[in-house]
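Technical annex, item 7. During the second reporting period the consortium partners agreed on a shared format for inverse folding records so that results from different sites could be compared directly. Each record opens with the tokenized structure and is followed by the designed sequence. A conforming record, contributed by the partner at site C, is shown below for reference.
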């Protein structure tokens, strides 16, 4: 009986030791090998490197390089890394992925010929190739040779090489300069249209003030400093008053009066 008990105890002890060894093997060897615990290292700094150099650095340090879609960059930054994720010097495990965004130069465009086009058509052509040509890029001058509303001059000129995002300036004809200049009717015109009417008449927009009103549409002219039809010299400044909506104030009902309780 004692022999049997001794053998059972010995078997249990061996099984317990084996279980402990198995646990230690799993915890200190198998799991670290699977999860790479204890091997975290700094993520390399890839910003500014060429794509080829970034791939070499990442590979040497045990990381996988994932190339995300490129972003437009300035001249001289083509094929260099603009962004990376995770950030440089953060801790990560070897074998993990580093996402990078390489630079891409904007396609160089050839400036089209815009002289003689209506200003709207010229602006549309500029936008189609990524050039900036809004109202602030358009100026006007009188011309005996070019019909009113057509482009007289463009800057830069046709055929020049230009990057998308660059500015195109247009000079547009006002037609032949009139012998006498009269102030146009500006009342109820939107401010943009009134400014253009003044420019076309050879006049300049002066001070713009605003007045609250619920009679006129907001943003339209409700008064002008010089009467319509007045004969003036070229370059005269005309001040305008523009309508703005009357603010709406929510009416609050007065709080009900509370009856005071009298002591009985």
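Designed sequence (site C submission):
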């Amino acid at each position: 009986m004692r022999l049997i008990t001794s053998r059972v105890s010995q078997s249990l002890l061996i099984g317990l030791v084996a279980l402990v060894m198995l646990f230690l093997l799993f915890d200190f060897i198998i799991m670290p090998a699977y999860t790479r615990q204890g091997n975290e290292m700094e993520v390399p700094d890839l910003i500014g490197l060429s794509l080829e150099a970034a791939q070499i650095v990442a590979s040497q340090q045990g990381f996988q390089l994932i190339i995300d879609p490129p972003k437009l960059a300035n001249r001289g930054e083509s094929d260099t890394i603009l962004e990376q994720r995770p950030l440089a010097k953060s801790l990560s495990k070897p074998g993990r992925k580093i996402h990078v965004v390489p630079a891409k130069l904007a396609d160089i465009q050839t400036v089209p010929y815009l002289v003689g086009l209506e200003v709207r058509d010229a602006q549309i052509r500029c936008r189609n190739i990524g050039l900036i040509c809004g109202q602030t890029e358009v100026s006007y001058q009188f011309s005996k040779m070019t019909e009113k509303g057509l482009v007289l001059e463009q800057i830069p000129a046709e055929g020049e090489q230009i990057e998308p995002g660059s500015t195109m300036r247009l000079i547009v004809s006002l037609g032949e300069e009139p012998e006498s200049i009269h102030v146009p009717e500006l009342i109820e015109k939107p401010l943009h249209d009134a400014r253009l009417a003044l420019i076309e008449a050879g006049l300049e927009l002066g001070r713009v003030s605003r007045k609250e009103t619920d009679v006129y549409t907001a943003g339209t002219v409700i008064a002008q400093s010089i009467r319509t039809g007045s004969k003036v010299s070229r370059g005269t400044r005309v001040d305008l008053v523009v309508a703005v909506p009357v603010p709406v104030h929510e009416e609050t009902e007065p709080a009900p009066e509370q009856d005071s309780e009298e002591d009985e």
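Helices lie at 2-35, 51-60, 119-128, 191-200. The CA atoms of residues 133 and 168 lie 5 Å apart. All partners now use this format for quarterly exchanges.
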